[in-house]
Amino acid sequence: MTAAAERDATTGNEALNGAEVLLRVLDEQGVEVVFGYPGGAVLPIYDALFKQDRIRHILVRHEQAAVHAAEAYARSTGKVGVVLVTSGPGATNAVTGLVDALMDSIPLVCLTGQVPTKLIGNDAFQEADTTGITRPATKHNYLVRTPGALAQTVREAFEVARSGRPGPVLVDLPKDITVGQAPLTAPALSRLKRFRRQGGPDAEAIARTVEAMKTAKRPLFYTGGGIINSGPEASELLRRLARKTGFPVTSTLMGLGAFPSPDPQFLGMLGMHGSVEANMATHGCDLLIALGARFDDRVTGRVDAFSPNSFKVHADIDPSQIGKIIRVDVRLEGDVRDTLQALLDAWDDTPAPDLSTWWNQIASWRSVDGFGFTQDMTPSAVIRPQHAIRRLYEMAMETGRDTFVSTEVGQHQMWAAQHFQFAKPNRWLTSGGLGTMGYGLPAAVGAQVAHPDALVIDIAGEASTLMNIQELGTIAQYRLPVKIFILNNQYMGMVRQWQELLHGSRYSQSYSEALPDFVKLAEAFQATGMRATCVGELDDVIRRMLEHDGPVIADICVAENENCYPMIPSGAAHNQMLLGPDQDSAAAGLTEEGMMLV
């Protein structure tokens, strides 16, 4: 573009159609990758994509997968993920991914095609009320009705997605807006005060928190995904604060990696399938400081019995989350990064308190080893899934490569959280709030696109893998060296476990009667298939998978009836964990009300 043309563009005088304006704004926002699937209503945008080379498009095979891939791209990079889908079924197929991103606070902008403005409301071909359908599925959404509103609307969408508590934003684009001429207006001052980051935390609230920290005998940092969303600096500040205070740290599923899992101050994940020490410390602490976590029901268990004797502090960027589920004593509103810095500044040179009695108690809980298992190492022995993940972790670390792990949803997800260690943030990609089966495979696509030289592994179950198996085509097209590590027990494992616990082992429709041959399936999609059927084959399969420079499906045949422990039955308290299959669920406080919470 000439200098004159550039000047004209800033004043809206350059002759551009709406699709070209859209791409200019995406480029202005730093977008490098778009995940999408074409259709009639977005063909002008795809034509504009064809004419440029600054923004890369990744063609998925299903719109749900486009959103999951963009989620993982966003989560692994800290950038806003971008999705492009067509009208009607294209938009409705994306809804699951949008809700997933909303629940897990992932910044996305989803661009949807729409029928021309004059046909809206006329039940036109491939028309859907996209803004109406997605209003509860997004942080905010827009319908662009005039060409002059296009550029600023898209800019605002990015601001909303990344500001405050991050989340997905949808922009619905009628075809006449993208076909016709539109001005590339200059950026305007933001009108979106309610979406901006909050200021620093209240000084008095910080002082109250630090005073409680100085006098606590049994303190605990309870950390969540908000720390990771806040950026790498927040994770570093958390580590510094933990070092200075000597406090133990636990994490939600979404927060894994914010504090190094191998660190002796880390107690592991808390909640339904959390560690014994994390859950018992949560129940027994006298000071609980929640940082970027929202007290999800899978963490709290029985709300009226959650950490019953603790002084509670809740730090969150979203004021509506504070006190929403658990009553707290101190509110710390604002970005958790700013809160951690304020706590560090206020703590200053205060010597770490003597917490030896508390750490001795934690050590006694640790000695229970709730994640322990016994693997028969006879070569012909059946593989236990925990052993498979531990060996995968150990052998992946031996490669020295930066490793990203996505998961599907189910038992394998919990085993991965328990047995795969994360020393850095942004390496753990899983569906927490919505629990979306089919998330992991497209998420691995997004992570591999973002980090082409990294080792990306989808730890999967055979049932979840089949939910978005078509994305093997995307992996093949872009030659993505994704490793799909299937723990194949032939059941929807978590469903089977709950049926065993709650419904007298009546396994209604949880057994997979007709699974594909995953080795042959891999070959059909130009990948390499491998299978391990016994312990003696496991290490060789993992080694070959990690050494192979292309995509791999490793079908790991594991014990069919293995359950995931420890486990807090829904409706029970943190100190009422089931530690194994021989424990009576009634003894752990399982109630009829709890059964309804599954």
TrEMBL record:
Keywords: Amino-acid biosynthesis, Branched-chain amino acid biosynthesis, Magnesium, Metal-binding, Thiamine pyrophosphate, Transferase
Coiled coil: none
Cofactor: how bound: Binds 1 Mg(2+) ion per subunit. Binds 1 thiamine pyrophosphate per subunit.
Domain annotation Thiamine pyrophosphate enzyme central: ranges: 206-343
Cofactor: Mg(2+); thiamine diphosphate
Reactions mediated catalytically: 2 pyruvate + H(+) = (2S)-2-acetolactate + CO2
Recorded superkingdom: Bacteria
All residue ranges annotated as the Thiamine pyrophosphate enzyme N-terminal TPP-binding domain in the record: 17-131
Thiamine pyrophosphate enzyme TPP-binding domain residues: 409-555
CDD domains assigned to the protein according to its UniProt record, in alphabetical order: TPP_AHAS, TPP_PYR_POX_like
Pathway field: Amino-acid biosynthesis; L-isoleucine biosynthesis; L-isoleucine from 2-oxobutanoate: step 1/4; Amino-acid biosynthesis; L-valine biosynthesis; L-valine from pyruvate: step 1/4
SUPFAM superfamilies: DHS-like NAD/FAD-binding domain, Thiamin diphosphate-binding fold (THDP-binding)
EC numbers on record: 2.2.1.6
InterPro entries: Acetolactate_synth_lsu, AHAS_TPP, DHS-like_NAD/FAD-binding_dom, THDP-binding, Thiamin_PyroP_enz_cen_dom, Thiamin_PyroP_enz_TPP-bd_dom, TPP_enz, TPP_enzyme_TPP-bd
Similarity section: Belongs to the TPP enzyme family.
PANTHER family: ACETOLACTATE SYNTHASE CATALYTIC SUBUNIT, MITOCHONDRIAL, THIAMINE PYROPHOSPHATE ENZYMES
Stated name of the protein: Acetolactate synthase
Lineage of origin: Bacteria, Pseudomonadati, Pseudomonadota, Alphaproteobacteria, Acetobacterales
